[in-house]
Design a protein that fits this description.
Neuraminidase, zinc, 8% helix, five-stranded mixed beta sheet, 533 residues
Length: 533
C-alpha cells in the first residue's frame, strides 16, 4: 500500500492543569481556532457549572478556563462517548454549530437527547455558549453511546444520519446476572430532518451486525463507515461501507455498498487536514493491541482512497501503554493521553501529547481551508472515543494555577467527586462494586438505591449495605422521618435529647364525706368487735 509523504510530529504536553477532568470518552469542540473540552469526569462543580472548558495551550502547557452558558440555555450534562458533528446553515456558510447526541452521564445513564451548541460570545476571557435541546419525533433512536452522527447534503436539502453504538440490554431481556450488560444497537440507519425533528429509521440488507466505536467520514450525500467493534461477535469489522442518501422531494432513499480496502480497527480518531483529506490515527486492532499505524483517507467525488502513511516517532511510553485515549483538536491535530500509573508516584496522573498531522508551513493554509469547508467534508466525529475502556482514577490534585489569570479553573475548594455519586464507598462494610453490582431491590434499574443519613451535614449510603428490607426502604422514602446509618445510629441515640414526657392529667379528687362518730356502750362495743375480727 502506498504511503503518504507528509511527516507527522508528536509533542509532549509537559504540564496539565486539572488533568483529573480528562477521561476516556471526552470530546473536543473547535470554534474559531479555540478548542473546548466537553465531557469532563464527574458532575460539574461550582467553579465551572457548565462542565465545558476552554483549553489554553501555550509553550506546551495546557491550562483550562471555564466556559459559560447563556441564560436561555438548557441543561447539558457531561457526556462520554457521544456522537458529535458540525452543522452549518448551508453548504457555503462559515458559521456552524455542534450537534451532540447520546452518550453516558457520570452515573452511567444513557442519553437519547439531541443538543445544539452555538458559540455566541467569542471573548476568550468569558466564552459563552447557547445550548438548546432539539425535540425529536417519529422513530427516535434509542439511548446509546459509541455511535456516529453525520450531515449529508442532497438536492439542496440536509439531514442528520445516526448509525451504530451500544445500549443497555432491553428491560424484558434482562437477568439478574446480566442486568447492566450492554449490547450492540440494531444496524438501523436513522435519518433526522433537523428543521422539524422528524426521525425515520431504515433497514439496509448490507448492514447485518451492529457496530460501535467505528469511524465515519462524509462528503456531500455519501457517508463512509470504517471498522467498528461488534460486542456480540467480539470482532472488528474489516468492511468498508458506503452509504448514499438521496433526498428527493418525496421520501428519502438509503442505499449501501460494501467496498474493498477496509481496515479492522475500533476507536480510531479522525482529523481533517484539507478539504478532501482526513487522517486516521489511534484505536485498537484487538482487545489488547493498540493500532500504531496511521492512514490517510482521501474523498473525491464518489470515490474513497485509504493509504498508509508514515507514523510519528511514538515514544516508548505510548508503545508500552496498554490503553490510550484522545480526541480531534481540529486543524489536523489530535490530543492523545495515556495513563501514567507506571511513571509517577501519583497513580491516577496522565501524560498528554499533541499529534500534528501537518507541518508548520501548512498551518496557515489548513486554517483557511477548515474555515471555508462545508459540513459534509468536516470530520463527522470530532471525538471518536476508545471503546468501553473503564474510567481511570485521575488525579484530583490541582496545585498548579496561573495566579495572574483569575479565569483559570481552580478546584481547590471543590467537593471531592469521589465522595459523591452512586459508586462510592459508603461505609466500612460497603460491598457495592460498579463492575459486579446487580439490582437487589425491585425499584433499582441501573444504579443502587441510596438513602441519606442525617448525621451532621448528611451523607449518602447504599440501602443494601445498611441491610434495609424493601418494605423499610419504601417506608423511609415515603415518610418524613430522619434516618441514621448503621455507623451513626448508636451515636445519635447517645446525643439525643430525652423525649419530653407529657404529664398525666390528674383527675380532681372527690371531696371526703364528713366523718361521723358513733358511741358504743360497753356490751355493744364487744359485740361489734367480735363481728369485726
Amino acid at each position: 500500500m502506498a504511503q503518504s509523504a507528509d511527516k507527522m510530529s508528536l509533542e509532549v504536553v509537559s504540564a496539565v492543569s486539572n488533568s483529573s477532568l480528562f477521561q476516556p470518552g471526552f470530546s473536543l469542540l473547535n470554534f474559531d481556532e479555540h478548542t473546548f473540552l466537553f465531557g469532563q469526569k464527574g458532575w460539574p462543580k461550582r467553579s465551572c457549572p457548565t462542565g465545558v472548558f476552554l483549553l489554553d495551550i501555550k509553550e506546551n502547557e495546557l491550562k483550562m478556563k471555564p466556559a459559560f452558558f447563556s441564560n436561555d440555555s438548557c441543561y447539558l450534562p457531561p457526556l462520554r462517548y457521544p456522537a458529535i458533528c458540525k452543522l452549518r446553515d448551508n453548504a457555503e456558510s462559515d458559521e456552524y454549530q455542534y450537534i451532540i447526541h447520546g452518550g453516558k452521564t457520570p452515573n452511567n445513564d444513557l442519553s437519547n437527547k439531541m443538543y445544539v451548541m452555538s458559540l455566541i460570545s467569542r471573548n476568550s476571557k468569558k466564552p459563552t455558549f447557547q445550548c438548546i435541546e432539539k425535540d425529536l419525533d417519529g422513530d427516535v433512536p434509542e439511548a446509546r453511546y459509541g455511535h456516529t452522527i453525520n450531515i449529508v447534503h442532497s438536492q439542496g436539502k440536509s439531514m442528520s444520519v445516526i448509525f451504530g453504538g451500544r445500549s443497555y440490554t432491553p428491560l424484558a431481556q434482562r437477568t439478574t446476572e446480566k442486568w447492566n450488560s450492554v449490547v450492540d444497537c440494531l444496524p438501523s440507519v436513522f435519518l433526522i430532518d433537523f428543521e422539524f425533528g422528524c426521525c425515520t429509521s431504515y433497514v439496509v440488507p448490507e448492514l447485518q451486525d451492529g457496530l460501535a466505536f467505528h469511524v465515519s467520514v462524509a462528503r456531500k450525500d455519501t457517508i463512509y463507515i470504517l471498522g467498528g467493534h461488534s460486542i456480540q461477535n467480539n470482532t472488528r469489522s474489516p468492511s468498508l461501507y458506503k452509504l448514499k442518501i438521496y433526498l428527493p422531494l418525496g421520501s428519502p432513499a438509503v442505499t449501501c455498498t460494501i467496498l474493498p480496502g477496509g481496515i479492522s480497527v475500533s476507536s480510531g480518531i479522525v482529523t481533517q487536514t484539507s478539504d478532501t483529506e482526513f487522517v486516521l490515527v489511534g484505536g485498537y486492532q484487538s482487545d489488547n493491541l493498540k493500532r500504531l499505524v496511521c492512514n490517510t483517507i482521501v474523498l473525491e467525488d464518489s470515490d474513497i482512497q485509504i493509504v498508509e502513511r508514515e507514523s510519528p516517532d511514538w515514544t516508548p511510553d505510548i508503545k508500552h501503554s496498554r490503553m490510550w485515549f484522545g480526541s480531534d483538536m481540529g486543524e489536523g491535530s489530535v490530543l492523545l493521553g495515556i495513563p501514567g500509573a507506571n511513571k509517577q508516584l501519583i497513580s491516577d496522573a496522565n501524560y498528554f501529547y499533541i499529534l500534528r498531522c501537518k507541518g508548520e508551513e501548512d498551518k496557515e493554509e489548513l486554517t483557511a481551508q477548515i474555515c471555508s469547508q462545508t459540513s459534509s467534508t468536516e470530520d463527522p466525529r470530532d471525538s471518536t472515543p476508545f471503546e468501553d475502556s473503564e474510567e481511570f482514577c485521575f488525579s484530583a490534585e490541582a496545585n498548579r494555577f496561573d495566579v495572574d489569570d483569575t479565569d483559570t479553573y481552580n478546584e481547590d475548594d471543590e467537593e471531592d467527586e469521589s465522595e459523591t455519586g452512586y459508586w462510592i464507598t459508603c461505609s466500612a462494610s460497603c460491598n457495592i462494586d460498579n463492575n459486579t453490582w446487580v439490582p437487589f431491590y425491585s425499584t433499582e434499574f441501573d444504579k443502587p438505591a441510596m438513602i441519606l443519613c442525617s448525621r451532621g451535614a448528611g451523607h449518602w449510603v447504599h440501602a443494601q449495605c445498611m441491610d434495609l428490607s424493601e418494605t423499610m426502604l419504601l417506608h423511609l422514602s415515603e415518610a418524613n422521618v430522619k434516618y441514621f446509618c448503621n455507623e451513626h445510629i448508636d451515636l445519635n441515640k447517645g446525643l439525643q435529647t430525652p423525649k419530653k414526657v407529657v404529664p398525666l392529667k390528674k383527675q380532681p379528687m372527690k371531696p371526703l364525706r364528713k366523718k361521723t362518730t358513733m358511741k358504743l356502750t360497753s356490751p355493744a362495743k364487744k359485740s361489734f368487735l367480735r363481728r369485726l375480727f
